[in-house]
Amino acid sequence: MTTPAHRTRSRTGRRSGDSGSKVAILEAARVQFAECGYHGATIRAIAARAGVDPALVHHFYGTKERLFAAAMELPVTPSEAITAALAKREPGSSLGTHMVRSALALWESPGMRGSLQAMLRSALTSEQAAATLRDFMAEAILGPLASVAEGTSPDRTSYRAALIATQMLGLAVGRYVLGFGPVAEASPDELAIAIGPVIDRYLTGDIS
Amino acid sequence: MTTPAHRTRSRTGRRSGDSGSKVAILEAARVQFAECGYHGATIRAIAARAGVDPALVHHFYGTKERLFAAAMELPVTPSEAITAALAKREPGSSLGTHMVRSALALWESPGMRGSLQAMLRSALTSEQAAATLRDFMAEAILGPLASVAEGTSPDRTSYRAALIATQMLGLAVGRYVLGFGPVAEASPDELAIAIGPVIDRYLTGDIS
DNA sequence: CAGCGAATTCAACGTCCGTAGAATTCAACG
DNA sequence: CGTTGAATTCTACGGACGTTGAATTCGCTG
To answer: A108, A138, A206, B183: most buried, per Cβ within 10 A?
Structure first.
């Protein structure tokens, strides 16, 4: 008799080895926020998806709002990704075409898609996510714009950026969230060719 | 003492005259769904905004899902609005410019704004709203497209429509939901001039 | 091996939710 | 005037939610 009351492992307590629960929770949170938006996602469902007790979520991240903030922290710094992408532009492709191609490459990269969907889905419901998205867009668009903004009337710059934002935002939502058939199935190159000139127009064209 | 137990009007029971509660509930639902999305909006908050007991909401519309469906029923039939708008196109403006101008006029019309926000906010969270939005966009875009689709390779038609959808969707979200400053403040005419040529490109331009 | 801190679960609290049923009042029609 | 049906509120149930505190186990340091 080896103390049968202790033989059945009590389920509580710390686990052996590196469980990776903290990361698992964050990934589960991204998926749930992406699928249901901020209100629709529940801590209990996130915990279940991560194979973990709901209280552990609270232990690591405190409140739901803080977990959301942590989940929205982009795995890629936008400014870095942008400048890196701009650096390797091939000659022969316009800046607009290159921007679309780079954005799609970034969005298609593994691990980014969930964050993107979560961000978009939540941005329309949570003001915090909306602010984050506005900041991200401003940073991601004003950079390229500044590099070609000579000769255009300066007070129109933010207007141009906002126009670009509408097209890129619509592309992201249509392709990754709403699933507009043809746009969701088209290849990044096809889309870059179709949409690139539009971005060029907003960058430097005559918009008044 | 004039029967004090009866003097205080019991709060239950039917009210005199036409209370308009059913309509009030629907309008309150639109506002709440617009502000919080499908999950975030609560029947109790909708009832409170309508000045009504939550049970009355249930009495009129049954379940929350059915109330949502009723609230999403557009006050304007899209096909009617579209054909009416197309009819009165002024000469000298391109079809794309006219589409943007008409869409903005429709969106700015009183009573439409709430529905639009509710639709957009919910479309990214509720699959039903997403389907409604896809249908609406298909109907609203394929019509104008068909009127100029001669000479373009026919299997690209739905691709063109989807591209237009991304730009119009991005415009609506950026202007009415996320509030991209310059785009939110610009006049419909300004936007029509800036964006119209983009729609023209997607309608008939070279996109491959 | 003793002890401390971190990880993990359990059980529970209080709150809000959507919904249901019964009760009450009004309007309309005979 | 009596009856019927619709409008309206009250009360309440069961469930899910976010959060908390205590208890348990592990890893690490000395």
So the answer is: B183
Average pLDDT over every residue of A134-157: 74
Which pLDDT tens digit goes with each residue over B169-207?
A: 999 999 999 989 899 999 999 999 999 999 999 999 999
Contact indicator for A156, A205 with CB cutoff of 8 Å: no
Residue A19 neighbours by CB under 8 Å, 6+ apart: none
Residue from A139, A147, A126 nearest A168 by CA: A139
Give residue for tokens 């179709």: A194
Going by C-alpha positions, the residue among A71, A26, A29 that lies closest to residue A46 is A29
Closest CA relative to residue A158, chosen from A174, A194, A134: A134
Which chain C positions have some atom within 7 A of a protein CB?
A: 5-12, 16-27
- Most B CBs within 10 A among A125, A126, A155, A206, hence the mutation to make, goes to A125
In the 3-class helix/strand/coil scheme, how is B26-85 assigned residue by residue? HHHHHHHHHHHHHHHCCHHHHHHHHCCCHHHHHHHHCCHHHHHHHHHCCCCCHHHHHHHH
If you compute the radius of gyration of chain B from its CA atoms, what whole number of angstroms results? 22
- Exposed / middle / buried, residue B41 (Cβ in 10 Å: 0-12, 13-18, 19+): buried
**B contact test, residue of A94, A178, A200 with most B CBs within 10 A:** A178
pLDDT of res. A3 = 34
Contact in structure between B37 and B122 (CB atoms under 8 Å): yes
Give chain A's radius of gyration (CA, Å): 22
- DSSP letters, B121-188, are HHHTT-HHHHHHHHHHHHHHHHHHHHTT-TTS-GGGHHHHHHHHHHHHHHHHIIIIIS--HHHHHS-H
Taking the C-alpha atoms of residue A190 and residue B160, their distance in angstroms, rounded to an integer, is 12
- What pLDDT, on a 0 to 100 scale, did the predictor assign at position B66? 92
* Dihedral-angle region of residue A180 (phi above 0 means left; psi in -120 to 50 means alpha; beta otherwise): beta
pTM: 0.82
